[in-house]
Amino acid sequence: MSEQEIQNMARLIDLNRQRLEQMQDQVSRLEMVQAEAADVESSLVEMSRISTAVASSQTEEIQNRVMIPFGSGVHLPTSIDTDTTAVIDIGSGIFAEKKPEQAAEIIRTRITDLGIIINELNTEAETIAEKITEMSAEFNLAAQKISGGEPTREVGATPSPKSDNNVTEATDGGGGDEEGDQQKKSRPTRRRGFGGELTLDD
Questions:
Q1: In this structure, what CATH number is given to the domain that contains residue 89?
Q2: How many C-beta atoms surround the C-beta of residue 112 within 10 A?
Q3: How does pLDDT run along the chain (202 residues), one tens digit per residue?
Q4: Within a domain: 122
Q5: Is residue 21 in some structural domain?
Q6: CA–CA gap between residue 6 and residue 9 (Å, rounded)
Q7: Are residues 48 and 82 in contact, defined by beta-carbon separation less than 8 angstroms?
Q8: pTM exceeds cut of 0.70
Q9: Distance of CA 42 to CAs 8, 36, 182, Å?
Q10: How far apart are CA 24 and CA 121, in angstroms?
């Protein structure tokens, strides 16, 4: 694998990580919306229960107060009568007045839809995380090969000498090299004397 391919892989890993972070952030926001919707649904169910109780009671002893959540921990205390209704967005910015049980059913459907979307995003996030793990392992292996060099020499490759004065050892595994060195050491060295004549040391 070339260095350019490794760089491309690194960019792809980074893009997948950014995508994973975006998906995780999106899931967190959807879970918050789902939790708030669940609070609203509980309040609407309670409103429906109180409204039914008030309608069927002949006395005024029933506590017809309920806390309606606005989000961020804010609730609105209000009284519930038999004709109490809720205004709800039914889609495309269109608001309609519904009975509490009808509004609760709409919210319940939205909670279910949000759960489906969250599950799909979590599944996709797991797939991306596995892909990032695999690509990271492949990237690390390729980068290690480039930075550390090839672990084995190719067949037929000629090794380079370590220095100008060193003689490259033969690869036949025999012991003839030591004998050759001894023979070279035992040979007399010829030197030129005065007048250009050759003399022998020792």
A1: 1.10.287.370
A2: 10
A3: 677 888 888 999 999 999 999 999 999 999 999 998 998 898 888 888 888 877 776 445 556 677 777 767 787 787 777 788 889 998 888 999 999 899 999 999 999 999 999 999 999 999 999 999 999 999 888 888 877 654 433 333 434 444 444 444 434 444 445 455 545 444 545 444 444 544 444 4
A4: yes
A5: yes
A6: 5
A7: no
A8: no
A9: 51, 10, 99
A10: 8
Helix axes of 100-148 and 3-56: crossing angle, nearest 10 degrees: 160
Task: Quote the CA–CA distance of 26 and 34 in Å, as a whole number.
Answer: 12
Please report whether residue 202 resides in a domain. Answer: no
Interatomic CA distance for residues 159 and 172, integer angstroms: 14
Give the whole-angstrom CA distance, residue 13 versus residue 7.
Answer: 10
H or E element at residue 18 = helix 3-56
